[in-house]
Amino acid sequence: MFSHVLICPKREVKRFLDLTAEETSDLWLTAQKVGRQLESYHKASSLTLAIQDGPQAGQTVPHVHIHVVPRKGGDFEKNDEIYDAMDEKEKELKEKLDLDKERKDRSAEEMSQEAEEYRKLFL
Amino acid sequence: MFSHVLICPKREVKRFLDLTAEETSDLWLTAQKVGRQLESYHKASSLTLAIQDGPQAGQTVPHVHIHVVPRKGGDFEKNDEIYDAMDEKEKELKEKLDLDKERKDRSAEEMSQEAEEYRKLFL
Fold first, then answer.
1. What ranges make up the beta strands (E) of B8-105?
2. Cα–Cα dist A87/A67, whole Å
3. pLDDT in tens, A79-95
4. Nearest residue of B to residue A52 by CA position?
5. Continuous segment of H or E residues that includes residue B39
6. Second label for B110, Cα 20 to 30 Å away, from A7, A40, B2, B45?
7. Chain B residues with CB inside 8 Å of A58's CB?
8. Which domains are assigned to chain A?
9. What is the pLDDT of residues A15-55, one digit of tens each?
10. Is ipTM > 0.90 here?
């Protein structure tokens, strides 16, 4: 699967419904820009964009975030498996924010390399 | 499952990436407004908001549309079943637009009643 990017507003807001009009526009214009770059970078042909807005929709971290995932034919055996991957990403995010929980990070080198490539891409 | 609403821009555009900044803002501010009303109307507590942007992401009708679905605890046995429901809705939309395909509409009365309730809600 391709790199999965989460986009969130700077202000810590729990629900998408609670964003101001300006924040909503900024958030989605950013998602559009990031999606365009990601799709081109990964030579993909589609995107999955989703907000799980509230715990009953699968949101595990109470700070609005958009999932942006570049898609290619045959990247998942069944299209809906993308949403299991989305849940995995939610869990990772939650564990990352949970300081009591032990987790194995990717190596500093791996993360630094990805961050560097994405920096060139988006900035 | 609750009523599932699709929101699309007036201009027929295939990809979310191809909307202008103004269309993107309008589309998501509308989704936010509709989501707020739907959630309250159905006494739900969360929302699923998603765009399947391009055929490889599960888009079946080449006109940008956002899926907005009010969510409640226990509405699906597994959270991800919502995405199967989303695919069903994509198929319905496609069949509705395919004039050669026979389909059984809901009764005029059923549709008129739902349209009337939603008109009061959103206008």
1. 46-53, 66-71
2. 10
3. 777 777 787 777 777 77
4. B48
5. helix B21-41
6. B45
7. 48, 79-80
8. 5-122 (3.30.428.10)
9. 999 999 999 999 999 999 999 999 999 999 999 999 999 99
10. no
